[in-house]
Amino acid sequence: MNWKKWFFVLLTINIVIVSLFFFLIFQPSQPSTLPPEKKMKGATFTVYSSKEHVNAVINDYIRKKTKDHPLQYRVWLSDRVYVASKLPVFGRDVDLTVSFVPNVVQGGNLELRDPDMSLGELQLPVTYVLKYLQKHALLPEGVIIDPNYNRIYVALNEFRFANGYQLSAKKFDLQHNQIEFTLTVPVGNE
Questions:
Q1: Transmembrane ranges (predicted)?
Q2: Which of 48, 68, 82, 131 has the smallest number of Cβ neighbours within 10 A?
């Protein structure tokens, strides 16, 4: 008779864990607001780059910004924009891979759409993973996860580099390895 009692205790614990897991996944995410476009005066230069160079710059920036954060991730450009991380699931790290199709939008910002996501070998519902990333990932300012529209918005006009330099995208064609940016260097009035 004692084994029946322990069976029901174990069953109850399993039900509580699974219920908690689904409760956390299905929590509503915070509404995302896109930043307003900012116009900057200055000298502009067109910068041509390749996927390899952009990969190096992005991951160096991410490595510096997330140095002490528990959720580490990396980004790379191939046929799509890929984001990879490891998530702790039941005490083990499982690979999470998300890929997007980039699109240059008005103002020179990027919109990452048509997400494809997998956790290990399991295909996941996009909205729930984006909600999880929105809550737990340490993202650079200007990167907005919008689970309601299944996209990530990269507000390049929010990024400021040394001396106030600003970057905006002109062309982001990964199939032909053609990436163009406009670099605006502020100039003072004399």
A1: 6-26
A2: 68
Residues 114 and 101 sit within 8 Å (Cβ to Cβ):
yes
What is the rounded CA–CA span in Å between residue 16 and residue 13?
Answer: 5
Taking residues 28-46, what's their average pLDDT? Answer: 67
pTM over 0.90? The answer is no
Domain ranges for the chain, please list them.
51-158
> Maximum CA pair distance of the chain?
91
The per-residue pLDDT for range 149-187, each reduced to its tens digit, is 888 898 888 777 767 788 889 999 999 999 999 888 888
User: What is the average pLDDT across 42-66?
Assistant: 87
**Strands 92-105 vs 73-77: parallel, antiparallel or unpaired:** unpaired
Mapping DSSP onto H, E and C, the string for 32-47 reads: CCCCCCCCCCCEEEEE
Query: What is d(CA 144, CA 109) in angstroms, rounded to the nearest whole number?
Result: 11
Residues 87 and 119 sit within 8 Å (Cβ to Cβ)? yes
- In sequence order, which residues have a C-beta less than 8 Å from that of residue 155 and are 6 or more positions away? 34, 35, 109, 142, 143, 144
Do 37 and 106 form a contact (C-beta atoms < 8 A)?
yes
